[in-house]
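thread: overnight batch results

M.L. [08:02]
morning all. the overnight job finished for the chain we discussed friday. pasting input first so we're all looking at the same thing
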Amino acid sequence: MLVMPSVAVPAFDAKPAGHRKLTPESFLGWTPFSCPFNLTRQPARAIPCGVTVEGLPIGPQLVGPILGDALVPRAARAFETAWPIPRPAFG
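M.L. [08:03]
and the structure it wrote out:
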């Protein structure tokens, strides 16, 4: 198992499809940690572990070996059991 950042930037506002120009540079600028595992078909899961000062979610991703699909949710559950997840407050 690898434990590493999910994305390279803090969470940002979601926009409707087509609202923001999507280029390879802009996409890869915030997703460099997930792209390699999409290409190698390794199972991965992002899990929340806290919030930023602004109250936006942050968390690592867990990456398993090829064909190790069952290992990733078990590891995520173990992490979430051992580390209670603070949730952002809503309105």
